[in-house]
Amino acid sequence: xxxxxxxxxxxxxxxxxxxxxxxxxxxxxxxxxxxxxxxxxxxxxxxxxxxxxxxxxxxxxxxxxxxxxxxxxxxxxxxxxxxxxxxxxxxxxxxxxxxxxxxxxxxxxxxxxxxxxxxxxxxxxxxxxxxxxxxxxxxxxxxxxxxxxxxxxxxxxxxxxxxxxxxxxxxxxxxxxxxxxxxxxxxxxxxxxxxxxxxxxxxxxxxxxxxxxxxxxxxxxxxxxxxxxxxxxxxxxxxxxxxxxx
Length: 246
Hints:
Elements: H1 8-50, H2 56-59, H3 66-73, E1 80-82, H4 99-104, E2 115-122, E3 125-135, E4 140-147, E5 154-161, H5 175-179, E6 197-199, E7 210-212, H6 218-245
Parallel strand pairs: 6-7
Antiparallel strand pairs: 1-2, 2-3, 3-4, 4-5
Helix pairs in contact: 1-3
């Protein structure tokens, strides 16, 4: 029996077959590319963490050597995961924690969120790298803060964003903004957290915990302030407990 290619039945059947075939091909491609996507995400995370303590370009660190350089500075066996009160959570792998996904999950209780802490070694010194995450004007922002061995002084930082405005909020990635955080302290001599404030009057350079914001990028700057204070206060509590035990 000849097939009537002009009929509605043929049209619908052809469309359904095409959808099934295309869907199957896309599913197979997604499955095949999953290991590559996961590896790329792992490498990006390694670079993000290292960028808080090193100038990646100056050190010649890139995607090709990220894994070996990461192992050179970071010992994941020393990494810990904290709860919102700064207490260590057992049985959770610090590197596997996705703070961006947890931050976006509105159903996840604050008490169930994880705060990873990475320990680095450089020139005989122990450094502490803290991942932070928040929200800018147009989308997510994030960063990593590197503390000196005193567990308080900021020795390095890096910030990133997904869709902030070039020349405005996107400037949080630039060295001039990052430099404004250097040598600031997240806690006083007793271990009490010292909250930061992003200011726009240019007075930040002369006042502790006051950081000059991005001109024209007030909302993004305040987003950095919020994520820094929300995240860093957790770690300050942890470091205070460590110092108490010494």
